[in-house]
Amino acid sequence: MGEPVSRTDLRHVFEFYRAMGLDEVPLGAGVEVKKEKTKTQTNTQKKQEKRKMSAGEKAAALEKLYHEALEGCTGCKLSAGRTNIVFGEGNPSARIMFIGEAPGAEEDKQGRPFVGRAGQLLTNLIIKLGMKREDVFIANIVKCRPEGNRDPEEDEVSACLPFLKKQIGIIAPEAIIALGRVSAQTLLCTEVQISKLRGRFANFEGIPFMPTYHPSYLLRNPKDKILTWQDALQVLELLGLKAP
Ligand code: URA
Hints:
Layout: H1 7-19, H2 34-52, H3 55-70, E1 89-90, E2 96-100, H4 105-110, H5 117-128, E3 137-140, H6 154-171, E4 175-179, H7 181-188, H8 194-197, E5 202-204, E6 207-212, H9 215-220, H10 225-238
The structure holds uracil (URA).
Uracil (URA) binds near residues 101, 103 and 119.
């Protein structure tokens, strides 16, 4: 690719091709349109601006999102069986966001993410990494409990995902750790197995994205805890942090 061109340069390019008797600029003509670059820069700027928002402003934006868009939500059939919406919790300015699948029974009861047995394991991981739960932000793909802890269905995920995306937009974390298959596959729009996704950085809307195993899986397969530990260490390293 050559140097990006300005609008004026681009007009000259079009005039040149028109003079050549062509109505369109051929693809692969080596023209990098500046407008695209500008769009990317705008997205990056937006992210930087979000990062610059104070924790108070982010907390207010999250609260507004909850009250104006989510409270009393009946956007999908999960609303019928829930006790509480599990919005997510943690530091609104978190550098790392953990995203699980869906609330379980205990989370539904308390209205808080990852507070059951799997949650204890996640909490231990966060502490081992040298942080507290309050330092990170913890959320899920869907905010209401699927009955019997089944996987959330496609219509439920589609109804709920915009809220998570808004949360990510407000928090603007520097890295996301996706906990488990449903989280990783949903956010990466892929069907690749979690065992193949984990341990490698992907990109979610410009944010470094590390898929790893779900804590519930690790409770059943403790020998794989080391893998999730290694995945999390990669994230720490990326952020210039060290586990104690
Ligand atoms: N499993 C999840 O994916 N999320 C929770 O909040 C709890 C268990």
